[in-house]
């Protein structure tokens, strides 16, 4: 009789495990993607960072440049709003901005730019080769576009989300609201 009870219990547990409803994200679920595995870049604070540096936190990464007139400030403003919506879970999210314009985005400028949004946000930079490598690894498009006597940058406007174990999980579209993004992050934090 004991054997039958144990088998019944195990059968019930396996049915429960199989019947879990997968999480429906607002963003694009890229769990298990074969890209964006790691990076090593310098922070505006002078320290070196890799994915392991953020273990235990969800990580939201956006690629951009400080002189961007609209997409970058909008994405970073949305990240500020996301952290407010997360309330007591806000400290479980690290926002990282990776510059695609290392020629102009100095550590000092990046520090000021981050501070304008949230002093807890971190900007990362590298030389031209490191920037090309990380952009390629994350499948981020960017290019210089001449503009008068200077230039601007065209670039991908996706934000990437890693879970607390350092695994890439989501691509958040630029059109998504802060509420939709916060809901996705809450679901990841609860998993």
Quick recap:
This protein is α+β, with helices and mostly antiparallel strands and 191 residues long.
Provide an overview of this structure.
Helix content is 35%, strand content 25%. The chain is built from 5 helices and 10 strands. The strands form 2 sheets. Strands 1-10-9-4-5-6-2-3 form an 8-stranded mixed beta sheet, sandwiched between helices. The protein has a two-stranded antiparallel ribbon with strand order 7-8. α2 crosses α5. The two termini are 36 Å apart. 31% of the residues are buried.
The figure for the number of domains is 1
- Cα Rg: 20 Å
Compute the number of helices: 5
- Low-confidence sequence ranges: 1-20
Top CATH class: Alpha Beta
User: Helicity level, as a percent range?
Assistant: 25-40%
The count of DSSP E runs of length 2 or more, i.e. the number of strands, is 10
**Main beta sheet:** 8 strands, mixed
| Ends distance | 36 Å
Under the CATH scheme, which architecture would be assigned?
3-Layer(aba) Sandwich
Main β-sheet, spatial strand arrangement: 1-10-9-4-5-6-2-3
CATH fold field value: Glutaredoxin
């Amino acid at each position: 009789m004991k054997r039958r009870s144990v088998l019944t219990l195990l059968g019930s547990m396996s049915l429960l495990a199989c019947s879990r409803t997968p999480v429906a994200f607002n963003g694009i679920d890229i769990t298990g993607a074969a890209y964006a595995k790691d990076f090593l870049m310098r922070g505006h604070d002078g320290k070196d960072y890799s994915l392991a540096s953020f273990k235990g936190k969800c990580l939201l990464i956006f690629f951009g440049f400080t002189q961007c007139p609209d997409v970058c400030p909008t994405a970073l403003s949305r990240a500020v709003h996301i952290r407010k919506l997360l309330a007591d879970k806000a400290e479980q999210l690290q926002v990282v901005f990776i510059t695609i314009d290392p020629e102009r985005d100095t550590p000092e400028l990046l520090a000021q730019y981050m501070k304008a949004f949230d002093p807890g946000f971190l900007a990362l930079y590298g030389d031209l080769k490191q920037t090309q490598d990380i952009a390629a690894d994350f499948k981020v498009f960017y290019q210089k576009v001449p503009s008068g006597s200077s230039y601007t940058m065209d670039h991908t406007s996706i934000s990437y989300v890693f879970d607390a174990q350092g695994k890439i999980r989501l691509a958040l579209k630029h059109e998504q609201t802060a509420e939709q993004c916060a809901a996705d992050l809450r679901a990841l934090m609860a998993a």
